[in-house]
Amino acid sequence: MRGTMMDVPLTVPLLADRAARYFADVEVVSRQPDRTLHRTTWGSVIGRARALAGALLNAGMRKGDRVATLMWNHAPHLETYFGAPLAGGVVHTLNLRLSPDDLSYIATHAQDRFLVVDDVLLPLLDKFRARAPFEKIIVVRHTPREAPAGCIDYESFVSSAGGRFDQPELSEQDPCGLCYTSGTTGKPKGVVYTHRSTVLHTMFVPFTDGLALRNSDTLLPVVPMFHVNAWGLPYGCALTGAKLVFPGPHLDAQNLLDLLERERVTVAAGVPTIWMGILDALEKEPGRWKLQPGLRMIVGGSAAPEALIRGFDKHGLRLIHAWGMTEMSPLGSCSWLKAGMREMPYDEQVRVRAKQGLPAGLVQVRGVDESGREVPWDGQTQGELQVRGPWVASSYTDMEGSEDRWTNDGWFKTGDVVTIDPQGYLNLTDRTKDLIKSGGEWISSVAVENALMGHPAVKEAAVVAVSHPKWVERPLAVVVLRDGARASAEELRGFLAGRVHSYWVPDAFEFIDAIPRTSTGKFLKSALREKYRDYRLPGC
Amino acid sequence: MRGTMMDVPLTVPLLADRAARYFADVEVVSRQPDRTLHRTTWGSVIGRARALAGALLNAGMRKGDRVATLMWNHAPHLETYFGAPLAGGVVHTLNLRLSPDDLSYIATHAQDRFLVVDDVLLPLLDKFRARAPFEKIIVVRHTPREAPAGCIDYESFVSSAGGRFDQPELSEQDPCGLCYTSGTTGKPKGVVYTHRSTVLHTMFVPFTDGLALRNSDTLLPVVPMFHVNAWGLPYGCALTGAKLVFPGPHLDAQNLLDLLERERVTVAAGVPTIWMGILDALEKEPGRWKLQPGLRMIVGGSAAPEALIRGFDKHGLRLIHAWGMTEMSPLGSCSWLKAGMREMPYDEQVRVRAKQGLPAGLVQVRGVDESGREVPWDGQTQGELQVRGPWVASSYTDMEGSEDRWTNDGWFKTGDVVTIDPQGYLNLTDRTKDLIKSGGEWISSVAVENALMGHPAVKEAAVVAVSHPKWVERPLAVVVLRDGARASAEELRGFLAGRVHSYWVPDAFEFIDAIPRTSTGKFLKSALREKYRDYRLPGC
Question: Which residue from B17, B175, B216 is facing A2, i.e. has the nearest CB?
Fold first, then answer.
């Protein structure tokens, strides 16, 4: 017996069609570089995306060709999100925070033929343009300056095909998007999303248990559109008909709060540091901004501190913790409370909400120990988090030697250490490379750091492994004290007792002035490991 | 450039795995034939479904083999919903309200090898068993009686494989379900759902704009599991972890209300007549049942009268109008209010909620006139509703001569007449075969009937086409007056003026005692058309 169902491929044009037919009047608002607000609609965005698709095909774009973007969050970027895939192309978002060297490497590796770029970012482009393969550079003008020589004006380009565009046939396995991971080690690696993976990922966005996006929502993606497609939320807005508000380059707390208030935003998305700044501003000027009651703030990129969840709860605003990776399109999990948990004491609820949560839709997860065995879901045993699902990468593009990121049975090794509790909630405890392997046990450096940073004298703490003749590795704590504060190693050791397992307490403490950081503000532990490579622990 | 995403097939085992891993403790409650409540959990249901799958394979089931069910709504039926597909089989739900002749035709056409049947339905089975192809009959016992000779006890069968089951590899194109349409004309026709179509359909169920199913919900499907898989809701419960409450054979208002109250149901689903009975009971005994505030009642199967929506609103209960067909898995559309509509006057809101609503997720729609042109979305122009989507049928199984239900470009012709308004809301006005084609215009028989039934003297009215020398067809109204009431043709003609287009007013009125009905209570218009085939209109 054979199925009798239609063979309708899951493609981005389905999402564009839905936005244009049912949500044509819904607004798309963009903050311009000069701070003015540009207002358009989903109907216009999709119409112009189709015109852009026609222009790309006219200009010689072939199926699978890369259309790079170097832009802030705004409507023309959204048009490119749809225009390139509609034409059968691949939208490749370049991260404007990377160095010119990285950008030229990535654009070359990706073989980007087209580039759509903000005029305000032309100075950055100039730093690597000579080393990049772009054949056509299309400039979105926000200022009165003409597009420079050798470049095409975006508006002229969009209108160049006279609005003619015939939707080409697309397979759901055709590529439609490309993002590079900005790993702290090794070369950036590219993940090529397909129309299928994009549509399936998008279908999770409206789930009531999760992000719960809907037509009556107004979404402000603070997360850049060059960062894993702004977590896929713009495509989710097309499916649901949610209003979009783009912040452009103005990402400081004041500007964001003004925009949240003015456009009556109901959902926003960004990394914890953004929300910390917002909470600070709200506390400093209580009552200044009238935000929508129940405003949901999706936080991802790194763990959501419990204090942040509590802080926003006091203002009637709700932080929703999501976790993902470039290799996961990116949504991997979301922390929402199961039935019955709303009756738990508040502190317990916050503890659950601070976890990475339950896997999204069709994503499967497991924790695996060093011997390759699945760890039990007891909320205690640590293992490497491995994932599988229709919107998870199966390889990097053109990157030999990276196959060890996948298991023999086809699961992706996230490089994160996890415990999974009996209810299925994920709790990420460390990166595998930051784990300390001591006497056959795994010590979570993150857990020890967080405990240490609970001490009033400690401003920052990083915990790294140093070698030990008997235990193989033991933890060393590197501590920055607050200005004028004092605490001895003995004092800190005593403070940790009872807060972490006794064998997790560091063997030594080093006091320094500042912990080296990555460009995105995370601790650069590889530098610390290098610095303390030959460290002699007391008694060794 | 090729995509780098995992090739994870969309299969029912993904849903089963999710229910078992994350929602194992969530209850599944079934009302037994003796009215007692049987309580189990999703964990147990999936465990037993896997054991059933192992037993089916042990018993010689091959990939694609049909496993028929003849059961009420309860946990063992749910186990079969998962057990047969997990084993690579096709669950084929037999409609226990059909005649033994139809059942034997359908079981034979489907080549059902296995049957799982309620012991309380054995008398029905006996009427067609000799004419059906079942090789193994497995009896779910609700009473102390032994399974009859030649049959296997369900519990013994489930435990026969000793719990051994290795999940076979499945393709997402493999068939997993089979339902027959119970058309009023012609033979029943079968639609074969695939794992892919089932999973994609299931992913729409948790959409916030729509049915919004979530883990904290308790769902009572009054709609039978033999009626298009209870609208796909049981699979939606597995995905979301919602609690399920099955009514068994007890579908009267009192029993349903008791169950809604007792199990704190938050979502229920059924046809309008069920909800009419419930509303009646609530009005007769105000305060007797304490229902969950905001209880959503999904209504489908036929149009939701506005009065029903208003009636439940007064009790703080919310009727949600959904539309679908066996050929659509079945969810085709759902009526929810767009942003801004909640500020409309109440009457206008109800008018929108009574429409068939906006297409579900990835479903595409169009209205097409007799010349094959798409009609405008003006809320006025009627056309046949045609649909396309990944969970829509592309043919019937083994049914030559039914190809005319699909267009040359692959859309399914629903047989419904629709207007689509500028916002995209569907409004079904008639069945194509009941339309009256008069002078090149389409007259909606349903609209004229509804207007006529607004007259205080009219109990029932059906409007059918009779032939006319000039206009090809003209409407004839067949009217049943209320006991003791009087109204002349002249009076009714005057009443319709201003209520419908002038050329929609019937040319003649016939007064009869009762309108013939189908077994499900709908007007049997084919009988009326036959009766008035040679009707001479006045002046012709």
Answer: B175
